[in-house]
Specification:
- It is built from ten helices and 34 strands.
- The chain is of the alpha+beta class and 585 residues long.
Length: 585
């Protein structure tokens, strides 16, 4: 009898033990871990996936405290939390309480709560900076502990340059590195190349783990894999930047000496033309003018060697601005009334947004849909447009002519093919502005502009997204653009356009040029608005030799005119050159 009673009691105890164990498991579905580290204690928790969370309460107490105090309450599960408010060298116990959508509470183990010791943070190492990514922290530490400063470029400047989220191509060097010391950037390239080649990071893992692991919410088990991936990313990014440094220098050496980079209204509502002098040495003892029709503004070039960026106030009514150095036309820019415009170095016209002075941008941003080919017949006022895409657009797009919608691009059109085109009749005789806009957050935003002037033209985008003049259209298919690479330094070997004589003139003036090689040549006279007043040669094939023409300006008004020659050999890009003429009645 005693034996049976003993067996029954044993079975009851066993059943109660199993039941009690099951209750503990159901009451403690949260697995909590705490990790020591600089900058705060990392709390990491996991829980049963069946729990639908309403809120999470994170509580802590120091040794000696009688109760837990809530540190943070969140309404979504982050799974990890960094307690930055712990006191150095103090041990803390933590509790996680999860409230589900039915109001039921789940708590981490309170009998044996997880704990950790807060480590003192070495502020001097990171200069009290906050880093959003591990890559950023490592890059800053490398720069601070390496002698990489040149001229007035400090560690923070270099850090902002290197940690940018970009394609790591020449645009980074041109847009984000001080161009006046771009050549000296080679010193940085060489020093960082040396550090990477010498495996600077091999013995730094534990050092970076102490600095950044908790800050970046990384657990010890994850650290080695994450750190290895980050170092590989840094090496790959730097390899791309280093490779493109020389390319950027070559690009800069070949660029025009001066560009208008933006036209905008400043805080005083003045119309500003922003000039950037890429090669200030060219302007020594030169006269530099900004022209519009018969008006001009003289630019002070005495300080361009030290002040490369200059802001010039221009009249609000100017519809274009030409840059003239002595008797040479450098470039001409269309201006859009009531629009703040940025001119990329690839000659795009885009809205001036999120770009600071000196407003240097190599190219427009990539988009789902873009203008790919455009043909404008000034005489018939017929406009042909082609749009292109590489992926299925998720946004809506509009094409506008002078703020009036002419094409609402439908998704059905875009789903059928990669290239779509349409033809429009433009009746407005004033300045015609073609713009492409995208619908974002219930608002249409302009992303690019194109000005239709008084010349007919046919242009298409090359593979590197640069507008090129072409002779045959390819609407509905990929653009076929011949190799138009042309070395501008060869221009004097192709022709020489002499200054007209006399200049200024009243009545007739003589125009002459020497053609070194046989070529297809155009020679014409235009005014500051781009209107053509006389055509001597219109894409005519002529042999090498000396040519003379006479122009009588009697029927024209007093003002500034331009004689322009354009010559093309084989399939190379046309070489173009202009000289300024002044007609006085």
């Amino acid at each position: 009898m005693k034996i049976k009673l003993t067996i029954i009691i044993t079975e009851i105890v066993l059943l109660l033990s199993i039941a009690f164990t099951r209750n503990i498991e159901s009451d403690l579905p949260i697995d909590l871990s705490v990790y020591d580290g600089q900058g705060g204690l990392l709390i990491d928790w996991n829980f049963d996936e069946e729990i639908i969370i309403d809120s999470v309460k994170i509580s802590s107490k120091k040794i000696g405290d009688t109760s837990f105090k809530i540190v943070e309450e969140i309404n979504i599960n982050k799974g990890r939390y960094l307690d930055r408010f712990c006191e150095p060298n103090e041990r803390y116990y933590y509790k996680i309480e999860i409230i589900d959508q039915d109001g039921k509470s789940y708590t981490s183990d309170l009998n044996r709560p997880s704990f950790g010791t807060c480590l003192e943070f070495d502020n001097s190492t990171l200069d009290n900076l906050e880093f959003k990514t591990l890559e950023s922290g490592v890059i800053y530490d490398i720069l601070k502990n390496s002698d990489l400063s040149i001229d007035n470029l400090n560690v923070n400047d270099l850090f902002n340059f290197l940690q940018r989220d970009s394609e790591k191509d020449i645009a980074d060097w041109i847009e984000n590195f001080p161009l006046n010391i771009l050549q000296k950037g080679g010193e940085i390239v060489n020093k960082l190349n040396f550090l990477i080649e010498e495996n600077y990071f091999i013995n730094k893992s534990s050092y970076y783990e102490s600095l950044f692991r908790n800050m970046m919410l990384i657990t010890p088990n994850e650290w080695d894999e994450v750190f290895s991936e980050v170092i590989n990313n840094i090496k790959e990014d730097w390899s791309l930047l280093a490779k493109n440094h020389l390319t950027a220098i070559n690009y800069l050496e070949a660029i025009e000496p001066l560009r208008v980079t933006a036209v905008y209204n400043d805080e005083y509502n003045q119309r500003i033309a922003n000039l950037y002098f890429f090669h200030p040495e060219v302007f020594f003892n030169k006269e530099l003018l900004l022209l519009n029709n018969n008006e001009y503004i003289k630019v002070n070039v005495s300080e361009v060697s030290t002040l490369r960026n200059q802001k010039i106030v221009i009249p609000e009514y100017w519809s274009n601005v030409s840059l003239m150095m002595d008797d040479t036309l450098i470039n001409k820019y269309d201006i859009i009334k009531n629009k703040n415009i940025l001119y990329t170095l690839n000659n795009d016209m885009i809205p001036l947004e999120n770009v600071k002075a000196p407003y240097i941008k190599l190219k427009k941003q990539n988009s789902e849909l873009w203008l790919n080919e455009i043909q404008w017949n000034h005489f018939s006022r017929v406009l042909d447009l082609e749009l292109a895409k590489k992926i299925e657009p998720i946004h809506k797009y509009l094409i506008l002519s002078s703020s009036e919608i002419i094409w609402e691009v439908s998704k059905e059109e875009l789903n059928e093919k990669d290239f779509i085109d349409s033809t429009f009749s433009i009746k407005n005789l004033n300045q015609n502005i073609i713009s492409i806009s995208v619908l974002q957050k219930d608002e249409y935003k302009d992303i690019e502009y194109f000005v239709l002037g008084s010349h007919s033209f046919l242009k298409a985008l090359s593979k590197d997204f640069i507008w090129k003049d072409i002779t045959d259209h390819s609407f509905g298919s990929e653009n076929k653009i011949p190799n138009l690479n042309y070395d501008a330094s060869l221009l004097p070997e192709l022709f020489v356009l002499y200054q007209n004589y006399p200049n200024p003139f009243n009545g007739e003036t003589r125009i002459s040029f020497d053609l070194i090689n046989e070529a297809i040549v155009s020679l014409f006279i235009s005014d500051a608005k781009g209107r053509i007043h006389e055509i001597f040669l219109d894409k005519e094939f002529i042999n090498s030799g000396s040519y003379r023409f006479t122009w009588n300006g009697g029927k024209n008004s007093t003002g500034v005119y331009f004689i322009t020659i354009q010559a093309q050999v084989n399939q190379m890009a046309p070489a173009i050159f202009s000289r300024k003429m002044i007609y006085l009645k």
